[in-house]
Amino acid sequence: MATVDLTKETFEQTITGEGIVLVDWWADWCGPCKRFAPTYKSVSEQHEDVVFGKVDTEAEQDLARAAGISSIPTVMAFRDGILVFAQPGVLPESGLNEVIKRVKELDMDKVRAQVEEQN
Length: 119
What we know:
- This protein is an alpha/beta fold.
- The chain has five helices and five strands; from the N terminus they run βαβαβαββαα.
- The chain has a five-stranded mixed sheet with strand order 1-3-2-4-5, with helices on one face.
- The longest helix is centred in the first third of the chain and has 14 residues, at 31-44.
């Protein structure tokens, strides 16, 4: 699956749906972001059941600020609208595939219960 550019207008709708959404927070001036981009694209082509979004932090500064992005690249994973993973830094292909594997294995009933407890 190709990656999807996310904006202030499309971000919320994209991450709150059912299923898994990965988000790559990046900027054009960021060397590590540029090195990570081919890995992210390659992994997106291996997982047709996952949405792979990208947020340009320069174009979407308000969105990046609202998400608490302080370092890029940062990868976030949402499942069924719940943030279940967030990590700054470049992940190797094997690491990104492992994140997806673990997100798929989550017991979402337990995750929802934990979220309820925290609220």
